[in-house]
Write a structure and sequence with these properties.
single chain; about 70 residues; mainly alpha; 4 helices; about 55% helix
Length: about 70
């Protein structure tokens, strides 16, 4: 699968985790309980970062780094 240069901040978390499984580790590292949550299909990066008090840009960068490592 092609490696993205950026992640759409409005993409649902479930889509991100399914498309790039390595991103699950990023969410766990931030103690986000998104894995298995019934809201995950509807919650976006913007929503999750706001709920968990996480900087959106830094979080997106971590997701991209995990995706890059997965593709390597």
């Amino acid at each position: 699968m092609r490696q993205p240069r950026h992640i759409d901040p409005d993409m649902p978390l479930e889509t991100i985790m399914r498309r790039w499984p390595a991103t699950v580790a990023v969410m766990i590292r931030h103690r986000m309980l998104c894995i298995g949550c019934p809201i995950t299909p509807f919650h976006t990066i913007v929503d999750a970062c706001r709920e968990h008090g996480i900087d959106e840009d830094a979080f997106a960068a971590e997701l991209l780094e995990a995706i890059a490592k997965e593709a390597a």
